[in-house]
Amino acid sequence: MSRKSHRSDKTLKHRKSGFRKPKAADALNLDQTPLELTVESLGYDGRGIARVDGRACFIEGALPGELIKAEVVAANNKRVEAKLLKVLEPSELRVNPPCSIFQLCGGCDLQHLNHEGQLKSKQASVNQMLSRSLGCDDIPWGVPIVAKASENTATGFGYRRKIRLACYFDRSKQKLLVGFRAAKSKKIIELEECLVVHPELQAALELVNCTLNDLHQNASYLKSLQLFAHIECIADQDARSVCFRLMKPIPEDVIQDMVKAFASAGVSLWFRVGEGPLTLISGHESEYQLEGGLKIAYTPEDFLQVNPSVNQSLVSEVITQLEITEDDHVLDLFSGLGNFSLPVARVAKSVTAVEAIAEMVDKSQLNAKQNRLSNVNSVKQDLFDEDALGWLDQGADKVILDPPRAGAELISQHIGRTGAKKIAYVSCNPLSLARDSKEILAQGYDITQAQLIDMFAQTSHIETLLMFERKA
Ligand SMILES: C[S@@+](CC[C@H](N)C(=O)[O-])C[C@H]1O[C@@H](n2cnc3c(N)ncnc32)[C@H](O)[C@@H]1O
């Protein structure tokens, strides 16, 4: 390809994304590029933000307080995108990323910032979004919710209990490549070691890699490997399981060899073939434990909070902050397998757990039964549907909201109908949290505390707990 045609491809790319390749003489005065910039803050996507000609300039890999040299790669009237060329004056919070594939892998994007800096920057980012949406600058921040100090997860590594691995059969190497997708690409980064995964999950990962490529090298086996779409691995101190998503069925002798290898390592084996059912091939359904001996059974495709130690701290914090008493009826919305409902039911008079996925509703009810809790009522309901408002009208003393990234807009607009004194909102998306908080305040509540939750250390993902109390 000639240099000319290469350039025109790039221009097209910028037009498609809403950005254009800036010209040297435009308002940005880009004949000065590379630019020297002072980074002001960290965006909620983990990129440093500086100002260029009054516009926000986003720079991957740059940290607040740093003086950097950067080259503009795209711009429009409101924003500029720049590539980091050199850090001239590093932040004192900058560290060498310990992972050898940090630059390639799309998994962690904040390993160059120390753990304390990650918490501070994430809090500043949520604070800015809430302040803007609510028109106030006095959000009452409490201490972040972190892993228990006694566990090795306190440093923000070795915590993750669930990952999805992509698969691709490389014909030239006659090998199944298993790993994470590269940043902004479909390329698979082969994964031998991942520093954020739980040690038990690391062991399961090694088993997957070795087993698949070492079982046989004959043509029929290699053909089977081409049918692997992706793999879910779940493991922590309580259980280990691996679920293979297959495009088509694979031969019985291959399955039997996999069963032997996984059974001898104590890992439960699951398959889902095409759109068929999730099937336990060998081993048993897993469960994780919460304080007080509570056991929550799950299958590999169920939603699980990824960081078990931080999850335990979060569950305890929600119960404490809600000040649940034995007289309380609690509404747990977006309740999953009962991660909050079950520990809350130990203290409260009753819990209504509402969740959209039928399998999880059934498991939540079963989990309650197996933990001898008779005061949990698990119901199936799409909480984005107007019908859901009927559950609010039944009333509650306390409410837990733990929605997916889209948030809980409809519920927030009508939350006052519950008459609840206190609400705990657990959010994995600061944007929908800021939007929904405005609705909750309009329903007659105040924010009494905000806490950052250290659920996703080393990555830019942000989890927040916001507590609301009904105005007197
Ligand atoms: C962030 S998870 C929280 C689950 C649970 N509270 C926990 O701690 O494990 C969000 C849950 O909301 C459920 N969900 C997603 N969309 C929903 C909807 N429209 N209505 C009800 N539940 C929904 C998901 O299936 C998932 O279980």
Automatic annotation (TrEMBL):
Catalytic machinery residues: C428 (nucleophile), C428
Endoplasmic reticulum found in the keyword field: no
Disordered, as annotated region: 1-25
Residue ranges constituting the TRAM domain according to the UniProt record: 27-86
Keywords attached to this entry: 4Fe-4S, Iron, Iron-sulfur, Metal-binding, Methyltransferase, S-adenosyl-L-methionine, Transferase
Binding site for S-adenosyl-L-methionine: Q305, F334, E355, D402
PROSITE patterns, sorted: SAM_MT_RNA_M5U, TRAM, TRMA_1
UniProt keyword annotation of Metal-binding present: yes
InterPro entries: MeTrfase_TrmA_AS, NA-bd_OB-fold, SAM-dependent_MTases_sf, TRAM_dom, U5_MeTrfase_fam
UniProt feature, compositional bias: Basic residues: 1-22
Family in the record: Belongs to the class I-like SAM-binding methyltransferase superfamily. RNA M5U methyltransferase family.
Protein name: 23S rRNA (Uracil(1939)-C(5))-methyltransferase RlmD
Species annotation: Litoribacillus peritrichatus
Encoding gene, per UniProt annotation: rlmD
